[in-house]
Write a sequence for this structure.
């Protein structure tokens, strides 16, 4: 018995040591980026210290004003808020319709939409570029937002449909008897009950839109409309030798979405536990 307990303790120690090493490996680059963003150019190259001697908060002011990073940051906030709101609204209504309504070709249409998940995003760049050009949406915020929204519809539909299918039919029947319309059932009953699945969708799409680069590279050329990841490319090309400013820009691009993920990651677990990903 003691031998088994000793082996288990050794295995637990090794497991925790490996996990700690992985955590340090993941966290240290972020810590180094934060530290470098608060140093001077000379300090980065001459003093390999973990913490800056004098904290240069002016680097962030210069990144926002001098390097126009405030403009890129605001664009990303707009794209993320508007895009995620539209994705949740459209996919939740479509998922509820596919889950609770009966109409001809429902399953065929559903699987046709879901099959688009098999198409990699780079595989549609050429037809997407030509379509946006023909619709005069190239190099516009509307064109980029439509790409973000359309690209997430299949995943959102897949995520929410199975959740709506698991809702008790007795609730709907009681609401219909009380005179509630189909839209009223969706808005007042189904949507609130689907909060765990919706929270999962919101988090994943916030991460996707905030970190997206390739579509913005294809669609946008105007600096005033670029999101933060696309702006980083312009930023790097202009200030590549100014490492404190570059690190400050990377920190501005990274930290907000990390904070959001850490604050809301429990909702992903709740969404999965509630059956949001059951097929």
């Amino acid at each position: 018995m003691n031998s088994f307990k000793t082996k288990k303790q050794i295995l637990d120690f090794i497991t925790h040591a490996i996990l700690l090493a992985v955590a340090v490996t993941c966290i240290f680059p972020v810590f180094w980026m934060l530290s470098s963003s608060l140093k001077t150019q000379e300090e980065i190259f001459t003093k390999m210290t973990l913490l800056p001697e004098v904290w240069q908060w002016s680097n962030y002011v210069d990144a926002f004003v001098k390097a126009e990073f405030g403009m890129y940051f605001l664009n990303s906030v707009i794209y993320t808020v508007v895009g995620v709101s539209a994705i949740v609204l459209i996919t939740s209504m479509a998922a509820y319709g596919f889950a609770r309504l009966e109409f001809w070709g429902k399953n065929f249409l559903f699987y046709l939409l879901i099959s688009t998940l098999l198409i990699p995003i780079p595989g549609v760049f050429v037809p997407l570029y030509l379509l946006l050009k023909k619709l005069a949406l190239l190099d516009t915020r509307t064109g980029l937002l439509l790409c973000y929204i359309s690209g997430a519809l299949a995943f959102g539909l897949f995520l929410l449909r199975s959740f709506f299918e698991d809702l008790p039919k007795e609730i709907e029947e009681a609401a219909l008897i009380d005179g509630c319309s189909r839209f009223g059932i969706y808005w007042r009953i189904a949507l609130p009950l689907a909060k765990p699945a919706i929270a999962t969708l919101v988090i994943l799409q916030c991460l996707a839109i905030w970190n997206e680069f390739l579509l913005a590279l294809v669609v946008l050329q105007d600096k005033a409309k670029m999101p933060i990841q696309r702006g980083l490319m312009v930023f790097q090309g202009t200030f590549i030798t100014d490492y404190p400013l570059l690190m400050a820009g990377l920190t501005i691009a990274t930290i907000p979405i990390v904070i959001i993920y850490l604050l809301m990651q429990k909702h992903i677990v709740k969404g999965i536990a509630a059956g949001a990903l059951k097929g």
